[in-house]
Design goal:
The chain is an alpha/beta fold and 261 residues long. Helix content is 33%, strand content 22%. It has one domain: Purple Acid Phosphatase, chain A, domain 2, CATH 3.60.21. Helix 1 runs parallel beside helix 3. It binds manganese (II) ion (MN). The site of manganese (II) ion (MN) has 8 residues, from loops.
Length: 261
């Protein structure tokens, strides 16, 4: 249940921040210190980071983009903004050490945001991609406590190496596919029905748009990418805003960061 004092809510996902995305990371930090200050609450619906190998990275690794982002989120939260973070398929190992450091709370996936009686289902979106059976198998494995305990028991350097190998493998399999998997609208409709809701916000698919179907609204968040090679892929960075008035709720998509460098 959202506190009734919340008027402006910002939603982002799929920023894929980290040392390999310096422009996107800088763009997010700028946004957090400017436009995002008008939000009462920030929802990060998965894949804030390109990879997360364990919260101990913040204590042991040399300071890098991960530390910068966490420090900026902590400052943002200290300024009075609520920060809620959901796991994505890249940063599912974010745990309480991270949350504590950023003064953020971790959201279960999916969860329902009750905004003045309007029930909004929030999810990263990867579990909606039901046509990708191998991925769903991997998802079930890597979300299991036992797998995570085994992974986290390895030294940090071994985990960093392993994560890089997994990302390389994932990139290779994506480039072999003509289209990468999309959310299944029927699965989304089932989730909405189960949650007694008609409104869903998710990310993951990098296909930002609104889907209206049988009176149900599904809003897909934009990914952020300000590092794409010039002349190649488009630079993207967008936040979804909800503005709660006394009578109504306004929805807005706004550029999340200056796309000119
Ligand atoms: Mn994702």
């Amino acid at each position: 249940m959202a506190p009734p004092t919340w008027r402006h809510l910002a939603f982002v996902s799929d920023l894929h921040l980290g040392p390999e995305a310096p422009a996107t990371t800088a763009g997010f930090l700028r946004w957090l210190g400017a436009e995002a200050l008008t939000a009462d609450c920030l929802f990060i619906l998965g894949d804030l980071f390109e990879a997360w190998v364990g919260d101990d990275l913040l204590d042991m690794g040399p300071p890098d983009a991960h530390h910068q982002v966490c420090a900026a989120l902590a400052a943002y939260a200290a300024d009075g903004h609520a920060v809620h973070v959901m796991h994505g398929n890249r940063d599912f190992l974010l745990q309480q050490g991270f949350a504590h450091r950023c003064n953020a709370s971790l959201l279960p996936d999916p969860c329902v945001l009750d905004l003045g009686g309007q029930r909004i289902v929030l999810t990263h979106g990867d579990a909606l991609c039901t046509s990708d059976a191998p991925y769903l198998q991997w998802r079930a494995l890597c979300r299991a406590t036992e797998w995570q305990a085994g992974f986290l028991a390895q030294p940090l350097s071994a985990r960093i190496e392993q994560a890089a190998a997994m990302r390389a493998q994932s990139r290779a399999s994506q480039s072999r596919m003509d289209t990468w998997s999309d959310a299944d609208p029927f699965e989304a409709a089932r989730w909405l029905q189960a949650a007694n809701s008609r409104w869903m916000i998710h990310g993951h698919t990098h296909r930002p748009r609104e889907h209206w179907d049988h009176g149900q609204l599904r809003q897909v968040l934009s990914d952020w990418d300000l590092d794409a090679a010039a002349g190649g892929a488009l630079h993207r960075a967008e936040a979804l805003w909800l503005h709660a008035g006394s009578m109504e709720l306004a929805v807005e998509r706004r550029p999340g960061a200056c796309i000119h460098r």
